[in-house]
Amino acid sequence: MEGQTLAPEPPRSYWRFSKKDFFPEQSFRNLSSYRIAVSQTCHRLKDRLAGRSTDATELVDLRKQSENAMKQCLTWWDLNWICFGSVVGSGIFAITGQEARLHGGPAVSLSYAASGLSALLSVLCYAEFAVEIPVAGGSFSFLRIELGDFVAFIAAGNLLLEAVVGAAGLGRAWSSYLASIIKSDTDFLRIRIHNFPNGFNLLDPVAVSILAIANSIAMSGTKITSSLNWISSVFSSLVILFIIIIGFVHSNKSNLVPFFPYGAEGVFQAAAVVYWSYTGFDMAATMAEETNNPSRDIPIGLVGSMCLITLVYCLMALSLTMMVKYTEIDINAAYSVAFDRIGMKWAKYLVSVCALKGMTTSLLVGSMGQARYTTQIARAHMIPPWFALVHPKTGTPINATLLVTVISCIVAFFSSLDVLSSVLSLSTLFIFMLMAVALLVRRYYVKGVTPKGDLVKFLMCLFVVVGSSIGITAIWSSNRRGWIGYAVAFFFWFVGTFGMMLLPKQRVPKVWGVPLVPWFPSLSIGMNLFLIGSLGWLAFVRFFICSAVMLLYYLFIGLHATYDVAHQNQRESEPEDGKGNTNQATM
Hints:
Elements: H1 19-22, H2 31-39, H3 41-50, H4 55-61, H5 76-87, H6 96-104, H7 108-132, H8 139-146, H9 149-182, E1 191-192, E2 202-203, H10 205-220, H11 222-249, H12 263-274, H13 281-286, H14 294-323, H15 334-341, H16 345-379, H17 398-414, H18 417-444, H19 452-477, H20 483-502, H21 519-533, H22 537-572, H23 577-586
Antiparallel strand pairs: 1-2
Helix pairs in contact: 3-22, 5-11, 5-14, 5-16, 6-12, 7-12, 7-14, 7-18, 7-21, 8-9, 8-18, 9-10, 9-16, 9-17, 9-18, 9-22, 10-16, 10-17, 11-14, 11-16, 15-16, 16-17, 18-21, 18-22, 19-20, 19-21
């Protein structure tokens, strides 16, 4: 009517479940559209293999998919304790006993040192990316920008696998430590089903319960979860200091003999598995979108914390193997049982409570970081964008958190700790290796700027670095101990890296960057591939089965959703193509 104005459209409810909220893309409008999309799979796959995102897309455009912004409420103090709370407790309490008993022996401390060095190199790569591109997606966004959509999807699948398996493994370890406090039997709180295969026959309702509680807290608010984390982590750091001191006071040097019971092979095989204990550091990078000053706070939180954590891990592992003979270490609750055996029963309960606290904070921080990964993956439409929504009141991605929570609870209910750890380590190492490759690509290649000749030279050098790293790993895995093969492979690695160093860099970090490029990223590639090669064949079988399932999902769903979104964005930006191309070439 004349003189009347239309009322503004009311905001949409956060809790909505229509088909359009899950599959808004053109390819999924009806069965006919989907058939057409599937018939174009080869063409679309070729398009997405070459498709790369941009800094601006990840920083600005994709955030609109969440409808509400995440709250910028974290400082350097929060990030330091987020890194500490996520990492310490997730591996040292859950995996050390298992690897000292089965693979590393007393030399498991060296396994932690080797994994720590490799993790530190990866930390440097993460820090540079997070400073330049402070988004919730972490490595997913970084890989999507530098290596393209398809590689980013493979990373996304492995990130979701890491989120589910990591949370489930922590839940199982939490249950073991609680059982050790109540009774010596670490499986006391589990339900045994004799008809199920080994590794899946101990049902764990306690693990499911703690996962549900931790994720509920994480959904309530970022600042609340961060505050709970750092308050409890201060207590945890004091107990860790106590463990190290008591371990050395009650040490028995004879427990360190033999130091290498399983040889160097055992040390590196253990290193590949204990790498799980360092996986939490990437959670600090995913909090960049909620950080007040990412360019200052993230390098401090990542690099500083990881140096200290590596030292703490080595000392804790050494104190354990000095207290108890490696053949007598309890696989599921190593530290609490160790104190019980040296006659300090009261210390046993203190250590168990600390372990429970450490695992709880790891679950809290992990649930925050995993949900941020999932949110950015959903923003890119690789999974339904419904999971990208941020709640207007809490400022947290509740839908993404629920997705990880439900799946991890199911996995934790059935799967044992040893099954989970090997799958997680391979997935994590694979992501870290890709991050090092992406950093090299970012420094040496800019679309529309890098001459074709330099690009060819760079790709050749990169191929030599990766190929020689695989060669060293293959020689080691074949049990050949002659020095000639290693010398030849190392020579090619050196030549590839040196050749890369002679090429002109196309991009210089604006604020903070990895030193000694390309040497540090190239070394990170080699170490991660070497640790991957040290894993058992069963881990590869499980990894490839999971990857095959991911690929099927991508070919039938993810590919078509991302193709539609990419070409819709291209159509919307056509009037500004000339300006956009000029800007891209200038970057």
